[in-house]
Amino acid sequence: MTDNEIADILHQAAFTMKPVSQMAADVGMTLEQAYNIQSLLLEKRLAVGEKLTGYKLGFTSKAKMKQMNVDDLIWGFLTDAMEIKSGEEALLSKYIHPRAEPEIAFKVKKDITSKIEMHQISEYIEAFAVAVEVIDSRYKNFKFSLEDVIADNCSSTGYCIGEWHPLVDNLNDLKIQLSFNDEVVQKGFSQAILDNPYASVLELSRLASEKGLRLNKGQIILAGAATAAEWMKPNVNVQASLQGFGHVSFTSK
Ligand code: OOG
Ligand code: MG
């Protein structure tokens, strides 16, 4: 199978909501090939009119690595079609077997064209917000290898972002929670994300610059979940909260 054939299978799976078998082991997929397949998926989404809105990191917390049995940082792209507006409804019938996870989002203030350092965060990032990410693997039983999940754009499916807050010096030691109908289903601390959520921006700048990609002003970065993900159910108010910085929610239907 060629990279484009694999990308077609994954693209179709997302739109028909029919999960497919893992492919990486069969084709001996390398990490480089997996990211190539991911960029072909982006091309296919742009070709149907979607717009690139930013990037996400995955497996930035031990809770996520452990849950998915994968142990390396990954990144994928986000498009406008994935946005769930705060307070609105998300139709579960659009997904295969969705899970929700609490995250922190950043907004890019100035184009990032090379790897940046911690002291440059306030120059390049203008705001942060609490967010819910909806992930939906295109693979059967939500099971994959590192190469498979990268090729599948890191299970990216939906994101809902709360109110933006101007940067603060320290984003550590903040309780972050996911609730379903006011019942806390996942909880953790912000520093579960790479010991410091801002480190996710540095990592993404490194990975993107290695690929010759730039992060543009106005784009969003999802730092990765601080906790394990939770299976979604219909008719639930799905809410993520970040201590001192409010919450964001939508309703699953
Ligand atoms: C892969 C995506 C991981 C995160 O925040 O760690 C991710 C998956 O778990 O399906 O989004
Ligand atoms: Mg995530």
How would you sum up this structure, described in words?
It is a single chain. This protein is α+β, with helices and mostly antiparallel strands. The chain has a single domain, classed as Fumarylacetoacetate hydrolase, domain 2. The chain is 26% helix and 30% strand. It contains 7 helices and 13 strands. The strands form 2 sheets. Strands 1, 2, 4, 5, 6, 7, 10 and 11 form an 8-stranded mixed beta sheet that branches. The chain has a 5-stranded mixed beta sheet with strand order 3-13-12-8-9, with no helix packed on it. The structure holds 2-oxoadipic acid (OOG) and magnesium ion. Magnesium ion is lined by residues 56, 58, 101, 103, 133, 135, 222, 224-225.
Task: Offer a concise description of the structure.
With 253 residues, the protein is an alpha+beta fold. The chain has helices at 3-16, 24-27, 31-47, 62-68, 121-124, 146-151, 198-210, and strands at residues 52-58, 74-79, 89-90, 99-108, 125-135, 156-161, 165-166, 175-180, 183-189, 220-222, 230-231, 236-242, 247-252. Strands 1, 2, 4, 5, 6, 7, 10 and 11 form an 8-stranded mixed beta sheet that branches.
Name its key features.
single chain; 253 residues; alpha+beta; Fumarylacetoacetate hydrolase, domain 2; five-stranded mixed beta sheet; 13 strands; globular; binds 2-oxoadipic acid; binds magnesium ion
